[in-house]
Write a structure and sequence with these properties.
Elements (H helix, E strand, L loop, with lengths): L5 H8 L8 H23 L8 H8 L2 H19 L3 H8 L1 H20 L4 H15 L2 H12 L5 H29 L4 H4 L1 H13 L1 E2 L13 H21 L8 H23 L13 H29 L6 H6 L2 H17 L5 H19 L8 H28 L6 H34 L16 H26 L28 E2 L1
Antiparallel strand pairs: 1-2
Length: 516
Amino acid sequence: MGKFTRANGAAERSGIAPEPSAATLAARRFATIAVMVATAMQAADTTIVNVGLPQLQRDLGGGFTLGAWVMTSYLCATAVVAPLTGWLRRRFGTQRLFGVSIAVFVAASLLCSVAPSAGAMILFRILQGIGGGVIHPLGQAILLDVYPKERHGRMLAILGATVMLGPVSGPALGGIITDLASWRWVFAINLPLGILAIWGVRRIAFAETKTVPDQAIDFIGILLLIVGIGTLQLWLERTVRVDWLRSPELFSEAAIVVIAFSLMAVRARRLGLRILRLEVLRDVNFALAASYNFIMSALLFTTIVFLPAVAEGPLGYDATMAGLTIVPRGILMIAAMLIVGQMVGKVDYRILLASGWILMAAGLGLLSLIPPVNGAAWIIAGSTLQAIGGGLLFTPLITIGLSTLPPELRTDATGLYSLLRQVGSASGLALMTGLLQVRIQAHLPALPAGAAGQPVPLPQHLVEQATLKAYAECFRVMMLAALAVTPAVMLFRIRSDESAIEPDAKPAPLPLVRAE
């Protein structure tokens, strides 16, 4: 391990952050590159297959339902694994855990690229999610460890831009790859990126927290988490399509969800649950930021999935064009996040958050007005406005949410935060997909009977009209949700006369990190 100079040691004792050495700066660069590449790769796989779903469904069978499962199985797997990050880090150490998670993710990606059936694809996507679920929360915690506190807002903004770069660039990249080759190649592209990330990880030595190799595995806690999240997704997907009064299945699924999470809460209180440290939710700022993160993720991810489907369906665009329509969204969202990263601590968080929710609602309102002709301009305008709103939300939420937590709880907090992000994305998609199917059926005219008493297929233009109306209604529902949660920004605990959350806290000393 590298060592501080005497001058730096004196600076640390005086409460002033020491000047980083050349080795420390080099280690930071390697750590940042590895985290950014791995995070972008993992985030892109939430949406890169979107525009290839029609081709995937034709090749493997399963129709629209298979497409939904390809998306939600990955999200649910990452949601289950993300909150285990703190426990896994304490048991195996940072470097080993980060490298293994990337390797599992890449191996599962290659299996997805050769999946022979719908069942195999879903299984491999679950495995891919297991590997990818650790990458984002662990990468977030690594950056908080290797950078001093005064740079946390900026680094989280850059990481947030990277996280959003994946989902917003994924459809465009996936569309080009699908048109030029096949949907199978959108998974194979992870191989070179994974190799680059693993190379970056092996070039650095992290300042490890004390590992506990013999720490017991909480199999019951993990099982409860899997059952709770998996049943929640199934319940959300079926809630809109099934009559509550005539379906005991829905009541049973809801009961299972409540029981599973209640038992987890009881275990955490009485036994000290090892996989989730729920005491982070006692912090008002983190609890509110995590709740907002759930809703924001649901609205952003559902929109990213719906827009290529609108473009390829009712509007009749090819996969490449469908992906390119949301490229401006990604560029401006990343720009907004980077700009906001410079504003964090200088502008009241509540102003940034309220502006973000209002812009998001305005963008969703525009998307609800997409016409059947020349709809690309409306997609670009609406999705871009919504993306700028999301850019105003992402960095302030994570910064204020983690700023009042002690350092030893950060990894557990980022794991839970990522859990809610993934569950929010999967829940929003499941719920709105169910609503979409219901509204499509509601807008379709009654099928006339043929000569043999069989229904006559409806003309394609009527199906497209009904589909576009249903999408418009879904966007309108999401707009109302964004407006409804806006007033809650006033609940954050922020002193109006201070630019930072904790102005009296001394800068944390730089961790001992070196380049090999």
